[in-house]
Design the sequence.
């Protein structure tokens, strides 16, 4: 079946540090991959997406590359800010557009 | 730009009480869904609907009912609340042909 596994948190970084949150997936066919972000007290918002192998999604300084050979979609940012503190969810949608979410990774950025 | 609106934001129930979580969207999306979010378990799909008059079960449907009488509204009913239903509930919507979901701000439910 389809599933998403992402690194457990919480993650605490100093401002301007480099961020990586690992995400791997299991899926049949050719899924689309997503990163959603949840700020405190809010719902999930789409951060970036990639729809096919080798695509790179990017937004607000965050990037993730769809790696079919390693079934991965790791989230990266070169220099995090306090305002990036949130919970990050990796997700996939299958060919039937059903969604599968990872467990979420909490990020706290300290000044 | 209202998007997806959920009410209430917070609710405390006693075991055995019933309530309805409201969800409305103004984007004319055919597909709507309910998730629950629990620590260490991410989001799990409760029920979904592909259009007015059509609903189906997700991964964790037990203890919940839904209906879809209009495109805009998709309420979630708890007929007899249990402590295991303490969670944060999110409603989401999207166009059926597109795979970008839009989420409401959530309802935090505690069952004592």
Sequence:
């Amino acid at each position: 079946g389809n599933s998403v596994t992402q690194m457990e948190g919480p993650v605490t970084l100093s401002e301007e540090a480099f961020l990586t949150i690992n995400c791997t997936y299991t899926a049949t066919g050719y899924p689309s991959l997503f990163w959603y972000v949840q700020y405190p007290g809010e719902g999930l918002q789409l951060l970036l997406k990639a729809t096919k192998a080798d695509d790179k999604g990017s937004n607000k300084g965050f990037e993730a590359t769809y790696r079919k050979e390693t079934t991965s979609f790791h989230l990266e940012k070169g220099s995090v800010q306090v305002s990036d503190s949130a919970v990050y969810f990796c997700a996939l949608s299958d060919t039937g557009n059903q969604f599968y979410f990872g467990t979420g990774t909490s990020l706290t950025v300290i000044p | 730009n209202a998007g997806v609106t959920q009410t209430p934001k917070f609710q405390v129930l006693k075991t055995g009480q019933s309530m309805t979580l409201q969800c409305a969207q103004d984007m004319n999306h055919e597909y709507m869904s309910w998730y629950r979010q629990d620590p260490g378990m991410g989001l799990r799909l409760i029920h979904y609907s592909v259009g007015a008059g059509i609903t189906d079960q997700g991964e964790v449907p037990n203890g919940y009912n839904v209906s879809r009488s209009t495109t805009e509204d998709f309420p979630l009913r708890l007929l007899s609340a249990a402590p295991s239903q303490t969670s944060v509930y999110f409603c989401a919507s999207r166009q059926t042909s597109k795979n970008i979901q839009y989420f409401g701000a959530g309802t935090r439910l505690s069952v004592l």
